[in-house]
Fold these 2 entries.
Entry 1:
Amino acid sequence: MTQAVSDKPANAAEIRELEKRAFAVRRACLESIASLGVGHVGGSMSVVEVLVALYFRHLRLDPADAKAPDRDMFVLSKGHAGPTLYAILAEKGYLDRELLSTLNRGGSSLPSHADRLLTPGVDMSTGSLGQGFSAAVGIALGLRMDGPRPDGTLRRCWAIIGDGESDEGQVWEAAACAAHYRMDNLIAFMDYNKFQIDGSTESVLDIRDPVAKWEAFGWKSLRVDGHDFAALDRAILEARKAKDKPTMIVLDTIKAKGVPHLEGKAESHNAPFGPVELAATLKALEREEAARG
Ligand SMILES: Cc1ncc(C[n+]2csc(CCOP(=O)(O)OP(=O)(O)O)c2C)c(N)n1
């Protein structure tokens, strides 16, 4: 059985706890990539805070029962950020921490892209961009058809898509469908880190004003700093109150956030990252964490 989640804004002490979690998750994720020597550093680092906010505050889950029948469901549609999800699942107790060093090796239960048949706590296999978001819409519809929990709340589906992923036409078919069916149990995030595999999102296919786009598709849409826990928490609480509409929270993020030599650079997408880069990055992260007190 899952426990109800708080509907109060996070206080200062709770925000500080989330920051500490983000530090731990960032470190665990980077250590797992460094053990392999290469990986999706950029898009994994830009979603650390949103995943921490979801898994440590807003998703209704039971880590002791990955398939709890009353749980919320989550789809990491930009499935190449799997390493961050695995670090989160390890922090939550779904996975043994030692498994993280098997990332993307033959026979591992932690492939580069999320796989629901291999990893406890993963609800949807993703990696082919666009498909996860369609699945999230179908899941949310199914959860609503199942009816509310005994306490009257509806199970939600949550999803994260990339800004480059939004070049997929399939994203916009799913968007239209979710608005048509007034799916207020679907809350999604666009990781607007401004880069994709081939360069800046603006140069590959300009998304223009993402909030206006989502609103035009019939969604409630908000835009916040995706690395600011207080802002994230407020936006998610607002989305949880939405009626008759799905919500898209556009996250202003920095690709490779926290990795000094790759931050905000297109080459961070799938980058060489070994023990030397790890050591320099951890030094910078530890300095930043110490400055927070
Ligand atoms: C259908 C499909 N086409 C191409 C790819 C290869 N691919 C992997 S990641 C990526 C770029 C995605 O950009 P974005 O969504 O902005 O990811 P982020 O910057 O957040 O990592 C591409 C094209 C894929 N996984 N799926």
Note: DSSP finds ten helices and nine strands in the chain.
Entry 2:
Amino acid sequence: MRVKIFRASNTTEALRMVKEEMGPEAVILRTRTLERSEADHGRPGDNIEVTAAVDYDLEATSVSGSAFRRQEELYRRWNVLEKELCEIKDALWMLEAGSLLKPELYFNKEVKDRYSCLRGFGLNRSALTRLMSRSTTAENGAECVTGDHDFSIRRYLLEVLDSIRIGGRGGKGDGARIVSFLGPTGVGKTTSMAKLAALAAVKRGKRVAMITLDTFRIAAVAQMETYARIMSVPLEVATTREELQAAVSRHSDCDAVFIDTIGRSPNNMEELKELKDILSIPEKIHHYLVLSATTQYENLIHAEKRFNLLPFDSYIFTKLDEAEDPTAMINFLVMGEKPVSFFTMGQQVPEDIEPASKRRLAAMMLNRNRTAEAEYRREVV
Ligand SMILES: Nc1nc2c(ncn2[C@@H]2O[C@H](COP(=O)(O)OP(=O)(O)OP(=O)(O)O)[C@@H](O)[C@H]2O)c(=O)[nH]1
Ligand SMILES: [Mg+2]
């Protein structure tokens, strides 16, 4: 007989796991609800335990007395290992939580659940510290333990989304009149600008003008001229502050003026200062910092720090379609001080852009969470 213990958040799920692993012949020996102290050692939310067994065909498998004893020994060792793993997990938790939490909260089930759920979303240490430092029901002396895994995920997901600012499209109505697109090289500044300019000119019938400061990259002006021709909007080229000022003045009757800038390395402070100087005209410009969702977290933080020299007003995140894992962007937005205005998710102009939304972020995070959960199940079950 082979005996195995399954744990899940509800009986149906546990029975499904039994059937999947041991087949329809499996017999249920015991079903019980775990004590909270026992459930603490397992996955968050798993509080139902089912013990199941299947009979061996003794002849077919030739399980002799000694083989059976060997198997028993293996189960015994497995149980010891499982116990030790739980102890190691607890020790790690204490180590991790030590710098984040008050000691009296280490053993609080809600705090522990919240922490592992947030970590399951891929939040890094900085983002976790920021979120965990907010007060919880546990800190207020109450516990909110429902045992419903999905409920907890939704609850903590909302908490992450609450910490991200959306908007900052440069004012009321259609937003700021003059906007610029700043950022590292190749992130999608020109394409994002073309998308927004096309939406304003073609879809909303606004009077639009485009100005490019990018005479550096070969074919940059030609790229802009093509967009301008398709949209039937005027295009100006400026390389100095005076030329930019003159171009902006020539289009003072436009509803929207879009300024494309040269991609700059965040490491080159000289070039960034030069860009700041060109953009320092008296008219108010809403500066978008354009960043790619495929960029690593540390590089996003670095770019933000350097481009804040301008300073910029809000973010546009591009290439969501290429980012297999959104966590760098999510961590960045949790830590970010500015709001996120737009997401782009493809190369098509103007289709592949949308106002940033918590709904999109939630979908990306849940998708990541589901993938991680599926991998976890494949490994553990
Ligand atoms: N997959 C995908 N590609 C994008 C997206 N946005 C832009 N691109 C592509 O990224 C490449 C670079 O886009 P550009 O708009 O030229 O980038 P840029 O920031 O203006 O580049 P520089 O001016 O050279 O600094 C192009 O091939 C775009 O089609 C997006 O949301 N998804
Ligand atoms: Mg460009």
Note: Residues 137-145 have pLDDT under 50 and may be disordered.
